[in-house]
Amino acid sequence: MRHRQVLAVATVALFGLSGCADRPNDLDTYYDDPTPTPTVEPAQPSVKPQANPVPPPSTQAPVPAAVSAALLTDEDVAEEEVVPGESKVSGCLTGLTRGTSRSASWSYPSGSTLEHQVTEYTDRDASDVVAQADCEGRKITLTKQTGIEVQRAWCEGTTCTVLLAKGKLVSALSVTAGTEARATDAAKRLLPIVAQRLRSA
User: Fold this and answer.
1) pTM (two decimals)
2) 24 vs 20: CA distance, rounded Å
3) How far apart are the first and last CA of the chain?
4) Are 47 and 156 within 8 A, CB to CB?
5) Distance CA 16, CA 2 (A)
6) Contact in structure between 164 and 151 (CB atoms under 8 Å)
7) 30: Cβ–Cβ under 8 A, 6 or more apart, which residues?
8) What does the alpha-carbon distance between residue 128 and residue 124 come to, in Å, rounded to a whole number?
């Protein structure tokens, strides 16, 4: 009888062990919760700062030395008692900007303005540009300047414009004053200085 009891106990133990055979036997993971899905954070792009930023290339062509040399300076117009003003090109001068040019502007205490522009033409002679210029207003005659190939002048209202040509350069002076007479007088005073600048360029 005792032998049968031992057999029965052994059989139960064997069945009990076989029932556990399908379960994993890794005690480190047996009682763990299901593995959670990891949250992936978007990677931040790493921006490496530049030690010396490279400036964009200039799109403006360099101004020829002759153009700069022919342009009036503050010292040239000091006796006019003017101060530098906003550089702008208007009136007859707007039709002369087909080449490389520079301009300067000044203001009188009275509110009158003085503009000067020098333009270089590489594809034609400056004398042709001035000879074919058709500015609005009444043509006026000013003292002919030596060393200047072509010289022309107009007055429209209270604005007087003078064009001078030498080689490939056109020098344009424009004065706007309270009256035509004042504009003409200022143009007469400045004409020899403008011509000298053009001759030495």
Assistant:
1) 0.68
2) 9
3) 136
4) no
5) 21
6) yes
7) 23, 24
8) 7
